[in-house]
Every structure is written in C-alpha cells, then in structure tokens.
Amino acid sequence: MKFRKSHLILLSLLSGALLSLGWPERGFPGLLFIGLVPLLVMEDQMYRHPERFIKFSALFYTYPGFLLWNLLTTWWIVNSTFIGALMAIVLNSLFMAIVFQGFHWTRKKLNNPVAGYAALISYWIAFEYLHLNWDLNWPWLNLGNGFATYYKWVQWYEYTGTMGGTVWVLAGNISIFLLISKYYVQRTNTAKINQNLNAVVPYSIFIILWIAAPVIFSYYVYATYKENEHPVNFVVVQPNIDPYSEQYILPPPVVIGKIMALAVPAIDSTTNFLVAPESAIQEEMWENELTRFTSIRLLRQAITPYPRLNMLIGGSTYYQLGRNEPPERWARKFTDTDGHYNAYNTAILLNNRDSLQLYHKSKLTPGVEILPSFKGFKWLEKFAIDLGGTVGSLGQDSIRKVYTTVGTVKVGPAICYESIFGEFFAEFVRNGAQIMIIITNDGWWGNTAGHRQHYAFAHLRAIETRRSIARSANTGISAFIDQRGDAQQETAYWLPAVIKGTIHANDKLTFYVKHGDYIARFLSYFAGILLVAAIGMSFKRK
Question: Which of 425, 382, 421, 435 is nearest to 400 (CA)?
Fold first, then answer.
C-alpha cells in the first residue's frame, strides 16, 4: 500500500502526539511503546518506494512529529527565556530527525532488516548519550525518563539506568511495527494466511512479554525491597523567594532571616541536616576570603545553638586566580586589571566544627550557565541568557565532591539541572555519598509541567542509586524520596514551607552505580561500526 505524502505528515504528527501523551508528569507511559510506530510506517514507505522521495525525506517528514513532541512537553522553557525555548525545541527536534535520517540511510545501504533496526536503536542511544555529555546537553526527553511518574515500572533501573528504558521503548516500537506489518500481509495475501498466522501469534506473545515482564519484575522488586535502618534527620526549607522580582535584590540579612524563620521551629537537638535551596545566597562572595561575608557570618550565628547540625545552602561565589594559576576556559578577565576570576553556582556546607566545604555545579544549563567551548566560539558569551545572578559560562568541579559531616553520614549535593543526569548523579554515590541532597530553583518556569517533570526525574535517581534524597526547591516541589522512589511530605508550588523528616542512609552500590551508562557506551561503539559498514557499502556500490 502506498501512502500519499500528505498522509506521511499526518503520521509524523500522530507520533508527536502519542509521545507527548505518554510523557510525564501527567501522561501514560504505555503510549511510548507505540509513539514511534507511525514514524516507522512512514520510513518503511520511503524504504520500499525510494523513487517517490528525495535524499533527505526521512529528515523532512519526521521533523514535524519531533517538533510537536518537543513543543508540547517543553514549551514551558519560554517562561524563563524565549530564545532558550526556541533553540531547545527547534534544535532538539532537528537532532532527533537526523537520527531517523541516519537510520533510514543505513537501512538502505545495508539492505538488512536486522542491521537496519539495530541501527535505529544504536543511533538513538548514541544521540541520548551525547546529550548527556556535551556542552549543549539537553537530555530532558531521553526516552528512559518517560517512566518518572510510573517509577514502580522501572525498579530495574538500578541495573541499567534510564538507557535500559530507552532500549525497552525502542525495541517495543520496532516489534509492534513489525507485528502490524505481518498482520497486514496476512490480511491482504490469502495464500499466506496460515503461514503468517503461525508467525503472528508467537510474535504477539513475545511483544506482550517484552513489555509486561520488566513491569512484573519491577513490582516484585518494589514489594520486596527493604531499606536498612540507618536514620538521618532532616529539616528542608522552601523559602519561596521570587526569582524574578526578589531573589537577586533582597539584602542578605532578609534572605537569611526568611530561611531561619521557617527552619528554627522545626530544628531540635536530633536534627542532622538543615537544607536550603540553590542560589539562596546572592551576596557577591569571594572564596579567597569567604568567612568575612555577611551571609556566612549570619548563618554561622544561626546554627551556633546546634552543635551537631550541618547546613547545606546554595549561593553564587567567585574565586580570584593567583598569578601562577592558569585560567581555564570559563575564566573571566577583570575589566580594570590583567587578572582573572571564576564564577560558580555553589553548594556550601557549614557547621560548628569544620571549615566550609564547597561544591561547584558541573552540569551547567546550556545558554544560561554555559556556552559552546569549541574554538572560536568565545564571542557567544555576550549572548548568554540573563536569569539574574551570574551570567555567562560558569566554573565547574572536575570531581563529584562528597561532604564529610558532624556526627552523621556522608552526603552528596546535586544542584538543580544535575539531577537529570543518571551516570553523573551516580558518581557522588560512587565517591561515598550515603544520602543525596538536591537543591534547586524551579520558580523560573512558573506553575507548569516543567518543575513537576524536574521533580519526577528525582524518583529515577533514587532507584538507580538506591539512595534516599532530600530535595529543597526555592519554590515547589520540596520532598523526601526514599530508596524505592516513594516520596513523602511533598510541598505545594509557590508557598513558603518547611518539612521535617527522617530518611535512611545506604552504603551499598548498585550495579548501575558501579558501571554507569555501560549500555550507552556499548551501543555507541556499535553505532559507529554500523555507520562505517554503511559507508563502506555505499562506496562499494559506487
């Protein structure tokens, strides 16, 4: 059967709609297993009738569907930056369409169905892995994230991470498409009815098992998983300071006063941690002499009555490079001297015993905190998107630091955007974190799916690492998440709040923590092999 070209556009848009309806935080992820089927039908038309299509038809016809998916699920970026939203939606859709074009081209050159569909899985995984590891990172729509609100389906992420979910979804789509193809042949070719029926029935059983078996196993793991008793007591503050109109203009004493007014009634002698959100301190603090700044002095005074309390809070800090310190690519030059300095988005741990411990955010938000580092692109710094605070490329830490604390366990701090990077997040745990803390500032996006999706992804990090999480947002959602991904005491959006609770530490390492995104690394190499083979076949035919 031949489709009209206008029908191919409709198939593309149908895929975009299905993927959007399957996406967190209100979608049903079962739809993800059929979301790409219309695109596979469309690609199959191009494969079987190449005379009807131009060279890059797969890219042109898949782009509308991917654009619709990106638009419907991440439109909320526009609340903080129109240019950033436009770039994220347009470029990410283009990258996805390029992956499909590459799959279609490879399938044609190799002329082998197994190799062709293996190329789709491998190329897509390589694309997602790239999105986790380059300066223009945007892994928000990595397919494995689609189960964030149905986390009981994917307790096995402790073995595979979200890449296992992506393979699950892609292989499910391919299998369902092939089943439809077999069934269609059965219906239209009476001579092969019995032959195809014998093929369709077991194939259908395979697909049901492919989708259902991981879910059944996951529910078993969820039901039988037991946390070890290692209680740690937290107080988490959600100060609800408006990032647009208050956060960067309120004096430090006012900000600290708001935080401590919420926290003090909840703190007692058993409290191990007080957590305040990302960017809470906006005093211009230089790390070369950090203890002299008003915010640090006020915080130290506030926690003095609690000798066993550890406080984690976010702030903007700066570091002046010495004469013998070579500037790294994110270093900034003083306007009035030849010296350089670094600017950081920092998580600060302080208590009554140790010196300050600092961790600098290292997975930075493209266009806001980092711009392409490719040679010759330094001029893009002037176009960095201003969301208040420090603008332009920020400094980064080379390792995932873990805090030593007074009287309790080691913890790892993930700052905002870092909580959607599974392998990166797992590095804190591999370095010794027994509990994870996420501090974030989600007020930029308004009361949209943006902040709810961001929160939902934290459930996946808890499962991958089997670490309890204390999450402090400047405004909603703050919560405690246990090692199975269950949340307690979720706060409401745009309301000041404080929550007090006990979560359990864990020192065991999951398979995923030990090995990271091994699936992505293997399939990325395999993608390279398939690509080289397709290029070689192309030259051979010429």
Answer: 425
